[in-house]
Amino acid sequence: LTRIREIWRVVRYSVVSGAYDYFEIYTLKSWVLGWLVRVLSQITFFALIGRLLDSEAQTHFLLIGNAIVIAAMGGIFALFMTTAERANGTLSLLVASPSSPAIVFASRGVYVTADAAFSALLGLFIVGPIFDLALPWPEVVMVVPLTVLVGFSAYAFSTFLAGLVLRHRESNGLVVNATIVSLMTLCGINVPISFFPEPLEWIASLLPVTNGLEAIRDVLNGEGARVILANAAAEAAVLLGWLTLALATFGRFVGHGRRDGSLEFAS
Amino acid sequence: VRAFAAGFRLQLRVVRSDADYVLPLATVPLFAITFLAIFRHAGRDDLTAYAVMAPVLIALWALALLDSGEIVEGDRWQGVLEPAVAAPASFPVIVLGRILAVTTIGLLSFAEVWLVARLLFGISIEIEHPIPFLLTLAATAFAVSGTAVIMAALFVLSRTPRTFQNSLSFPFYVLGGVLVPVSFLPDWLEPVSSVIFLSWSADLLRDSLDEAAVDDLAARLGAVVLLGAVGFAIGYALLARILHRARSHGTLDLV
Questions:
Q1: Which A positions 23-82 lie with beta carbon below 8 A of chain B?
Q2: For A191, which of B20, B38, B169 is closest by C-beta distance?
Q3: Are A66 and A39 in contact (CB under 8 A)?
């Protein structure tokens, strides 16, 4: 019980410190005029492709996919926390402390991810009606927890990637951006995953976003509860899978870094 | 000219030292796959020109935001801004040279898109009007560099340039008609789009790949060059003013 209490304490402080980091980046004004405008523009950019194709179904498909991927983007952005930890000179202190760095990294980006899920929902509910997307009440309420699930699924994946790139600071930016655009390409956001060859379709089903987004499309298309739950359960399984992998491998990656000094001194 | 060339060479070396500088080039193939997949899935291969030119413009804009925009701020962070400004060569001219180097690197994105279209989608990009195409690319490179000078100056004044970098991408891709022409936007937005050089460049590049003749080439190219020149003039004046003020007040390192 004491152990759980200690872990909870580390989680709590990590979440709070992550939130303060975020407040340093955005004030309310710059969040609304900067970030939110970007989110709305990003969703509009892709929804307009549907207009170019002269297809309402395509417009709505692209709009929903690109709204929900905002939640995943936030989860992946959290990977920058490791770089920040190194840049601030606190990574070695964190590694030397008795608590697990994996728990800290798995908690510090919670605020960023929650904020991204909120942004995704705001984007869907603002841009959706502009493009005549039907949001059936009360079923649409289900979209809220499903979007949060997608965000945290991406965050679990990002925490695993954080362990991988911990010793290679120079590749962080590349990993973050390539991961986001790869998810946008592969995970059924812009075209159904069946468009790609079967092996890629299989990989996509193991990545965050794919199943959760499908569940959200099911909700908005009025599918039955069983189909929605099956896709939601698959997304939850993906989340747990990546989180388990992250917790299982993080210590090993940190250990390598401690042995060869690459945690602090690599480029 | 020597200061300009030195700036150009310096930036090429800087870019070679860190992969982060060419980050937008790494995402170009993925954007190309996404756009080509959307049009292929919809059975609209007639829109291929739209899908292949958009990633090029996105890369040029992103490089202006991420690399060019950070040039002055980066110098300040590394503690080399003071000696660079104190040197006899004109600092804004060196910055111009460095920005143009970044833009030149950005033009490699067209080769990436060409390869993706050819290898993954079996599409051979035919440039129906090569001279208008090359002139438009050159004018666009000029205009994006001009806009980047404004960004370089503004980011110095900003407490968090990252906020700008994160925010100034998609709004301009929409207003600039990078993928979907501005005629699909509400009428009241068209005057805004017309002062964004991307809207002229995107239309011209798409028209250069189309079989039909390119109408009003000179006037449209002139609009891109004019907007680029206005960008250069504003950016140069801003940069000179910011530096003069900082030197007068002794706050160069704390602008």
A1: 24-26, 30, 33-35, 37-38, 41-42, 44-45, 48-49, 51-53, 55, 58, 62
A2: B38
A3: no
Interface A-B, measured as beta-carbon pairs within 8 A, has a size of: 103
Q: How far apart are CA B187 and CA B191, in angstroms?
A: 8
Q: What are phi and psi of A27, to 5 degrees?
A: -95, 175
CB contact under 8 A, A195 and B41: yes
ipTM: 0.88
Q: What are phi and psi of A229, to 5 degrees?
A: -65, -40
- The helix (H) or strand (E) run that includes residue B201 is helix B197-209
Interacting residues of A135 by C-beta distance below 8 A, sequence separation 6+: A125, A128, A129, A220
**B165, closest residue in chain A (CA to CA):** A34
Q: Are A25 and B179 a contacting pair at CB < 8 A?
A: no
Amino acid, res. B239? L
**Backbone phi and psi for residue A163, each to the nearest 5 degrees, phi listed first:** -65, -45
Q: Are B154 and B64 in contact (CB under 8 A)?
A: no
**Tens digit of pLDDT for each residue in A197-242?**
889 999 999 999 999 999 999 999 988 889 999 999 999 999 999 9
